[in-house]
Amino acid sequence: MFSKILIANRGEIACRVMETAGSMGVATVAVYSGADAQSKHVTLADEAVRIGGPAPADSYLKGDEIIRAALSTGAQAIHPGYGFLSENPDFVEAVEAAGLIFIGPSASAIRKMGLKDAAKVLMEEAGVPVVPGYHGANQDPEHLFGAADAIGYPVLIKAVAGGGGKGMRLVERPDDFMEALKSAQGEATTAFGNPDVLIEKYIQKPRHIEVQIFGDGSQAVHLFERDCSLQRRHQKVIEEAPAPGMTEEMRAAMGQAGVRAAEAIGYKGAGTVEFIVDGSKGLRPDGFWFMEMNTRLQVEHPVTELITGVDLVEWQLRVAAGENLPAAQEDLSITGHAFEARLYAEDVPKGFLPATGTLTHLQFPKIARADSGVRAGDTISPWYDPMISKVIVHGSTREVALSRLSRALVETQVGGTVTNLAFLGALAAHEGFAKGEVDTDLIGRDLETLVLEPVAAPRHKVAAAMQALDLIDVAPDAGFTLWAPLHRAVELKWQDEICAIDVQVEDQNRQTWTVDGQSVIAEKSQGDWRIDGVVIPETATSGSQISVFDLYGLMFEVVDPLDRAGSAGGDSNVVEAPMPGLVKAVFAEAGQAVAEGDRLAILEAMKMEHALLAARDGVVAEVLAAAGDQVEAGAALVRLEEE
Ligand code: MV4
Question: Which of 207, 232, 251, 296 is catalytic?
Answer without folding.
Answer: 296
